[in-house]
Every structure is written in C-alpha cells, then in structure tokens.
Amino acid sequence: MYLEIITPEKKVFEGDVNIATFPGTDGSFQVMNDHAPLVSLLKDGTVSYKAKDLAQEVHITGGVVEVLKNKVIVLADGIVY
C-alpha cells in the first residue's frame, strides 16, 4: 500500500509500505494491504511503518488518517524531532 505523511510545512514520507501503526484517539491500530476504507482522528503519538528493507517511526502531535484503495494519507498537525 502507498503511505503519505504530510504536515502543514512539508511532506515527511511517501512510499510503499507493508504495514503501518497509528495512535488513534481510542487506541492504536494497524493498517495493512487491502484494508477497508477508514477515516480516523489521531492523537499525539508514534506512527510506525514497515516496508521490505525499512522500519521507521515518526512522532506526530495529532491529526487525521484516511485509508482508501490501498492509499493511506496522514495529515499530521506536526511532528516532533
């Protein structure tokens, strides 16, 4: 699936991943290939994602995620370095 993580300032990540974990307001959840359509609010926490040779984490300060047809878009309020 294709993942994009975007803040108001810049695009943080874009690329193909196998799995992504998000800090939902009601608890963390994972999204994998062919996931059902979803829109969810995100709280302050860590977004982690894995591809074949890649495992990364980004700490966000909140936002929203949309999952639709193997495309996942995260609109983050901001990121913490």
Order of helices and strands: EEEEEEEE
Total separate domains: 1
Total of helices:
0
Kindly estimate the percentage of residues that lie in beta strands according to DSSP. Answer: over 45%
Question: Mean pLDDT across all residues, rounded?
Answer: 96
Shape field: globular
Quickly give the CATH architecture: Sandwich
Name of the CATH homologous superfamily: F0F1 ATP synthase delta/epsilon subunit, N-terminal
Question: What is the name of the CATH class?
Answer: Mainly Beta
Distance between the termini: 25 Å
Number of strands: 8
Q: Which spans of ≥5 residues are poorly predicted at pLDDT below 50?
A: none
Secondary structure layout plus pairing:
Layout: E1 2-6, E2 11-16, E3 19-24, E4 27-32, E5 38-50, E6 55-68, E7 71-76, E8 79-80
Parallel strand pairs: 1-7
Antiparallel strand pairs: 1-2, 3-4, 3-5, 5-6, 6-7, 6-8
